[in-house]
Amino acid sequence: MSTPAVADPSLRLRPWASLVLFLSAYSPLMLILIIKDYDAVNPGWLPQNPVFSGTLLLVAVFSSLAVLRSVKEIDGGLTVTVTKASNKSGDMFGYTIPYMLSFMKVDLGDWQTIVSLVLFLGILFIMAYRTQTVFVNPILALAGYMLIDCTFRRGDKEIQAMVVTRQPLAVGDTCRLERLSHYLYVAARDSSTPEEKRGKA
What we know:
By secondary structure, this protein is of the alpha+beta class. Helices cover 38% and strands 20% of the residues. The termini are far apart.
């Protein structure tokens, strides 16, 4: 009797990890909202809504640091050979649409405004999680990462996927990729193969 197939846990990011990634994408927006919460007429050390603004600041800093550290520490994965590569970093600008909120008056003390904002971002998060696009992140772009539409070969199998990488990828390159989902990979911190490492020694 055949053994039932076990779902590969690497094929979908865990919800909490996806949420951290999503929140980090909007950490600059959170900082903008904190700045707008200061009273221009009666300025002081604290914003008008210190508790909510402080929460936004903690979320922005924690999520951004967590994402950058996680990507930086990736070391390993599949050894592949690149056969096609196209820079798609411009797709990261898709996350900037909600930044239009920064040009509107947002009262962080108004519960209706907060609920509406949470609902709006909640819908965006569900869409990003369902489509596995949470790694299309402007924070990574600011840190120097690129989004590459890449076709690579591993053995006799050829795969097309999006790759988040800090190093440019060109046809013929051999690198290591860590799989995050069916169509999303991250290039390892050290993409050199064992043969290349021995050659450099």
